[in-house]
Amino acid sequence: MNLKSLFFYLSIAVSSLSNPLLINRNALHADVLFFGNNANTFAIDFVEIADPGNAADSVGFPNPAGSVGYRYGIGKYEVSESMISSYNAEYGTSNAQTITTNNRGPNKPATLVSWKDAARFVNWLNTSTGGFAAYKLDSSGNAALWSATDTSDYDSTNPVRSRRARFVLPSVNEWHKAAYYDPATDSWYYYPNGSNSPPTAVASGTAPGTEVFNQPAVGSVPADVTQAGGPNPNGLVAMGGNVTEWGEPISFHLFPGSGAVQRGANWLDDVSAMHSTAFDETATTSDANFAVGFRVVMLLSAVPEPQLAAFVFVISVGTAWLLRRSQIHRRRTTEALRNSPTL
Q1: Is there a contact between 173 and 68 (Cβ–Cβ < 8 Å)?
Q2: Pairing, β 244-247 against β 292-293
Q3: Core-most of 3, 68, 96, 336, by most CB within 10 Å?
Q4: What is the structure's pLDDT at 31?
Q5: Residue among 129, 44, 143, 35 at smallest CA distance from 87
Q6: Predicted model pTM
Q7: At what angle do helices 305-339 and 3-16 cross, to 10 degrees?
Q8: Distance between CA 248 and CA 165 in Å, rounded?
Q9: What is the DSSP letter of 286?
Q10: In which element (H, E) is residue 159 found?
């Protein structure tokens, strides 16, 4: 790498200190992050949800909902069966913490997954990449709130998730904003197709304004995660249909009993289930349903401080070295011109 190229990459890294997503985009190709190893490697395509501090939705439920004070990423697609298979091969089987799905096909959304299963998967995304578990689960998968005695993890505003976690299940506000908010127009919509009019029901495909819902009760299955309707204004697929999705509880006093949130419609539902007012907080963390899956959120600010400090040190040293090399180069060039014969 020449001096100019090195300075270019260092300048990107320096500017990225205030923009962690930029680090991910340059290193990981538009936030496509890889997990697992060898034959068990899989990718999650995260889409940025920007416009931090947006006004809340005053029509949807809960009311208000969807105001998020930070930028974050969320999976473009629902978690697939093949991702769960990789988790099982990498971790679940050897630790007696396997996750069972409906086994409809590797590209189908992972369903028959309880909230605890989804939390276990997300915890592994964190710990397998050198991070910290998002959710407090015991060896049997039972969930609990983080407490004030968990000083490194506890966040009084959301005691369900660790404040050190990078990968989490969507909070109510994170999911609501990703589904119903259009950052280009700073607008809220009733449906996750960027409209106050219902989307068109399809069995599969990516046509704009479509969602996978209202399918026959006999013989139909959810679509492949990449073929589950047209993308919404945030570029996300199947926020309205295909399968209902787990989220973090909002009523913390109900957790870990009932209180696990489910949002969005599944392929058998009618259009009312994907309206911005549709909300279910009656499930328990152990419930597993053939029509309920999940997707993953990536928090952009959860960078371990020691690593960040080391990164800043490397950048500082590298920048100083570049400046020193530049000074030496200029001095040598000046001396060479001064001593060269006149043409």
Answers
A1: yes
A2: parallel
A3: 68
A4: 82
A5: 35
A6: 0.80
A7: 150
A8: 14
A9: T
A10: none
Q: List the chain domain ranges.
A: 31-303
Residues contacting 66, CB < 8 A, separation 6+: 54, 56, 57, 60, 173, 176, 177, 180, 181, 188
- The residues with which 299 forms a beta bridge, in sequence order, are 72
- Average pLDDT (21-26) is 35
Q: What percentage of the chain reaches a pLDDT higher than 70?
A: 79
Start-end of H helices in 52-97? 81-87
- As given in the structure block, the two tokens for residue 326 are 């530049």
C-alpha closest to that of 199 among 108, 246, 295, 267: 267
275: amino acid identity, one letter: H
Question: What pLDDT does residue 309 have?
Answer: 38
* 3-state SS, residue 244: strand
pLDDT at 301: 66
Q: Where does the chain have alpha helices with state H?
A: 3-16, 20-28, 81-87, 115-127, 172-180, 305-339
Sign of the dihedral through C-alpha 88, 90, 93, 97: negative
Q: For tokens 């926020």, what's the residue?
A: 239
C-beta separation of 299 from 72 below 8 A: yes
DSSP 8-state secondary structure symbol assigned to residue 77:
S
Q: Range with the lowest mean pLDDT among 16-30, 178-192, 326-340?
A: 16-30
d(CA 147, CA 156): 8
